[in-house]
Write a structure and sequence with these properties.
Distance between the termini: 18 Å
Number of domains: 1
Number of strands: 6
Strand content: 35-45%
Number of helices: 2
Shape: globular
CATH architecture: 2-Layer Sandwich
Radius of gyration: 14 Å
Order of helices and strands: EHEEEEHE
Helix content: 10-25%
Strand order of the largest sheet: 2-5-1-6
Length: 100
């Protein structure tokens, strides 16, 4: 089966940024996104979503490399110094490239 190369950009951050991030990723060229509520922990301790201000989201965008780079740079430069953020990329293959 033939696949087409795209980037998967994953942003894990505080839920308070959800509506702002959605506007940002669409403005920067993403055709769509997926968001899920997530829990976890790291060097700053657990984030278990026991209360509203402790919620995290996982925002995923499938796009070309230039759009993924632009979104990641914007999130890093705009939010990372004030909000808990984790960003990572993965190379993926998609079946319908026109969607992304």
């Amino acid at each position: 089966m033939q696949t087409h190369v795209r980037k998967l950009l994953v942003i894990i951050t505080e839920a308070a940024l959800e509506s702002t991030l959605v506007k940002d990723v669409l403005k920067l060229g993403a055709q769509g996104y997926t968001i899920a509520d997530v829990r976890g922990g790291g060097r700053h301790g657990p984030r278990d979503a026991d209360w509203q201000a402790d919620r995290n989201i996982r925002l995923e965008v499938i796009c070309d490399a230039a759009v993924a780079d632009a979104i990641a740079a914007h999130v890093r430069d705009t939010y990372s110094s004030h909000y808990a953020t984790t960003l990572f990329f993965a190379d993926i293959g998609v079946l319908r490239p026109e969607k992304f």
